[in-house]
Amino acid sequence: MTLVVLAFILTGELDMKIASWIYAAGGDAWIYKNGFWTETVIHKLGRNLTYLGVLSLLALVALSYVSPRIGPKRRPLAWLIVAIVLSTGIVSIVKRYSGLDCPWSIWGLGGSNPYITLFDLRPMTSGCFPSGHASGGYAWLALYFFFLEACPRYRWKGLAVGLCVGLLFGIGQQLRGAHFLSHDVITALVCWTVPAMLFIIRGKSWAYRQGSVGRLSHAGAVPPLR
Question: Can you give the pTM of this predicted structure?
Answer without folding.
Answer: 0.89
